[in-house]
Specification:
It contains two helices and no strands. By secondary structure, the protein is mainly alpha-helical. It starts with a helix and ends in a 57-residue tail after the last helix.
C-alpha cells in the first residue's frame, strides 16, 4: 500500500514541478504558456488552467504526504527516538564512545599520524631492581 502511494506521490511531485515551470513568470522568461490568436487557449485561459491545476496538484501532494506519514507512523512503534536511549551513560557501543581497546571507530588513512599511546601507569611504591 505504501509503495503504491509513494509512486503516486512522486508522480504528483513531478507533475507539480512541470506545471509550475510552464507558468508564465513576471518577466516572461520561462513561460511556455501563451500563444497566438489561433492557439487552443488564449494566454489568459492558459494561465487560469495552469493556476487551477497547480492548486489541485498541491492539495494532492499534501494529502499524499500526510498519508505517507500516517502509514509510516503505523508501521513503527509509537514514541520518540529519545525514548530508546538507555538511562545509564555506560554503554559499550554507544555512538561517540571510544572503541574497546582505546582505538577509534574511524578508519586510519595511510600516512596519517598515529594517535599517541598513553603512558603506563606509575608504580604505587618504590621498585626494587632485580637481576635476572
Amino acid at each position: 500500500m505504501s509503495a503504491v502511494l509513494l509512486v503516486i506521490h512522486l508522480l504528483i511531485a513531478i507533475a507539480l514541478i512541470v506545471t509550475v515551470l510552464l507558468q508564465r513568470s513576471e518577466g516572461g522568461a520561462l513561460g511556455i504558456g501563451g500563444g497566438g490568436a489561433g492557439a487552443l487557449f488564449s494566454s489568459r485561459g492558459t494561465a487560469n488552467v495552469l493556476t487551477r491545476s497547480t492548486a489541485v496538484l498541491a492539495v494532492a501532494f499534501f494529502i499524499t504526504s500526510i498519508s505517507l506519514t500516517i502509514l509510516a507512523r503505523q508501521g513503527s512503534h509509537a514514541g520518540s527516538v529519545f525514548d530508546r536511549v538507555p538511562a545509564s551513560g555506560t554503554q559499550q557501543n554507544a555512538p561517540g564512545a571510544p572503541a574497546p581497546g582505546g582505538g577509534s571507530v574511524l578508519p586510519r588513512l595511510p600516512g596519517a599520524p598515529q594517535p599517541q599511546q598513553s603512558a603506563p601507569a606509575a608504580p604505587s611504591g618504590p621498585q626494587v631492581p632485580t637481576n635476572d
